[in-house]
């Protein structure tokens, strides 16, 4: 191999394996959309409508967060915390302007499944009734929120892995009947799980 060919091959190899500054910037813009739209944000036109939308979303999330916290079998105050951070995170990583982020009924039920299995209601009589130093909650309530936090953290790790691997495009493979069936099943599950509260009945948790 001649010297010119070696030099050309070396240049191609270094170009393939050495990321340029522009490539890094483009990668960050694709992964962090806020870097793309924030510099072009028009304060005069968008600040007032966005403020009104934020207030409306906050009012909605207060009641919805409290309800979904009960649905998750944890103390209602944690529903407020769960409603705050998704909106902030989505503002950084989200790409859609018309998406309302926050707590979700189906994920709340999935979290409640783990909470009720690991920390069932009958354990409340076995734990101490003294309040802990965190928000004045009992040991039983703190055990439940620990389980819910662990489930949420694991779900977040899986979602971050899917984000890094760009697996969102796999949703195009899912057909419309499958999505409709999942939505209908989730809605039915949410409604039927709340019948006992509507009728004032005490029933054991069945997943």
Automatic annotation (TrEMBL):
<feature type="transmembrane region" description="Helical">
    <location>
        <begin position="66"/>
        <end position="93"/>
    </location>
</feature>
<dbReference type="GO" id="GO:0055085">
    <property type="term" value="P:transmembrane transport"/>
</dbReference>
<keyword id="KW-0472">Membrane</keyword>
<feature type="domain" description="SLC26A/SulP transporter">
    <location>
        <begin position="48"/>
        <end position="202"/>
    </location>
</feature>
<protein>
    <submittedName>
        <fullName>SLC26A7 isoform 2</fullName>
    </submittedName>
</protein>
<dbReference type="Pfam" id="PF00916">
    <property type="entry name" value="Sulfate_transp"/>
</dbReference>
<dbReference type="InterPro" id="IPR011547">
    <property type="entry name" value="SLC26A/SulP_dom"/>
</dbReference>
<keyword id="KW-1133">Transmembrane helix</keyword>
<dbReference type="InterPro" id="IPR001902">
    <property type="entry name" value="SLC26A/SulP_fam"/>
</dbReference>
<keyword id="KW-0812">Transmembrane</keyword>
<feature type="transmembrane region" description="Helical">
    <location>
        <begin position="147"/>
        <end position="167"/>
    </location>
</feature>
<dbReference type="GO" id="GO:0016020">
    <property type="term" value="C:membrane"/>
</dbReference>
<feature type="transmembrane region" description="Helical">
    <location>
        <begin position="99"/>
        <end position="115"/>
    </location>
</feature>
């Amino acid at each position: 191999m001649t010297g010119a060919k070696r030099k050309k091959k070396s240049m191609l190899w270094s170009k393939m394996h050495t990321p340029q500054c522009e490539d890094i910037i483009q990668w960050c813009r694709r992964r962090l959309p806020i870097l793309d739209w924030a510099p072009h944000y028009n304060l005069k036109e968008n600040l007032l409508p966005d403020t009104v939308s934020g207030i409306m979303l906050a009012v909605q999330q207060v009641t919805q967060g409290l309800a979904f916290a009960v649905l998750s079998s944890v103390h209602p105050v944690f529903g407020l915390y769960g409603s705050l951070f998704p909106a902030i995170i989505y503002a950084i990583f989200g790409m859609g302007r018309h998406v309302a982020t926050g707590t979700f009924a189906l994920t709340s039920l999935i979290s409640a499944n783990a909470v009720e299995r690991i920390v069932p209601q009958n354990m409340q009589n076995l734990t101490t009734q003294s309040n802990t130093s965190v928000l004045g909650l009992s040991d039983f309530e703190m055990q439940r929120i620990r389980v819910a936090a662990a489930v949420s953290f694991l779900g977040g790790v899986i979602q971050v892995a899917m984000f890094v691997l760009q697996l969102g495009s796999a949703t195009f493979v899912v057909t419309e009947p499958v999505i409709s069936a999942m939505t209908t099943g989730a809605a039915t599950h949410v409604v039927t799980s709340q019948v006992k509260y509507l009728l004032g009945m005490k029933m054991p948790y069945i997943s």
